[in-house]
């Protein structure tokens, strides 16, 4: 047990590992010794008890997700340069406006889009279905792209297709990642660590900050199971805290003309006049 504690101190003092790294290594150690203390372990090496069962598990630091500011999002859309401009512009527009996951966007089929209802049917984690409503920008970009979308014998239902391959297969998640990376570089935003998932964070943050979207509504838009997951976006913006302070009923109070003047001296002696 002492060896384990010394090892954890070594990770802090010498290796300067983060809580997240130490938590991963702690978990590995605990699982290994759990194996050694169960019937699955070979008899000569089996332990009666797990000595590391109560080894402290460092809590990873909470990190706010990266995202693009509003002006950066506009730059990204304004600077799209691609042989497949309409397709790639549409992909970025849906990411930034709807907050879809990468796998959700890659899995979109023609039948999932309803122009009349202005919706997309999306299949999220665990194939859980939800309906995402589209704004004018999404409708316009989808319609413009679909007019140029080629026919595909391999993936006839897929919305987003490869235009280079002769069989026009459905775009893979990795290819969509590359499209996002390339367009971020074109816009001068390639060094910010932004990925398709960070564009999802961007969409959620912009909805919350500029659209006054309630976290419970945002939860449904993003397909989160718990509102606790969604609440991280409420911490990304200073808007609510700023509004709260400015809405105080004392916000308009100002110092009067007597500011800085000492109060008149009061005579507290027994001979001072009193009011009867």
Give the structure's gist in a few sentences.
This protein has helices at 2-13, 19-36, 70-78, 85-98, 102-106, 136-148, 173-186, 196-211, 215-222, 227-230, 239-246; strands spanning 113-114, 119-123, 129-133. It has 276 residues and is mainly α. Helix 4 (85-98) runs antiparallel to helix 6.
How much is the average pLDDT? 81
Structural class: mainly alpha
Largest sheet: 3 strands, antiparallel
Total helical elements: 11
Low-confidence stretches: none
User: Strand order within the widest sheet?
Assistant: 1-2-3
User: Got a strand count?
Assistant: 3
How would you sum up this structure, described in words?
By secondary structure, the chain is mainly α. The protein is 44% helix and 4% strand. The protein has 11 helices and 3 strands, in the order H-H-H-H-H-E-E-E-H-H-H-H-H-H. It has helices at residues 2-13, 19-36, 70-78, 85-98, 102-106, 136-148, 173-186, 196-211, 215-222, 227-230, 239-246, and strands at 113-114, 119-123, 129-133. A 3-stranded antiparallel β-sheet has the order 1-2-3, with no helix packed on it. Strand 2 (119-123) and strand 3 (129-133) form a beta hairpin. Helix 4 runs antiparallel to helix 6 and helix 4 (85-98) packs across helix 8 (196-211).
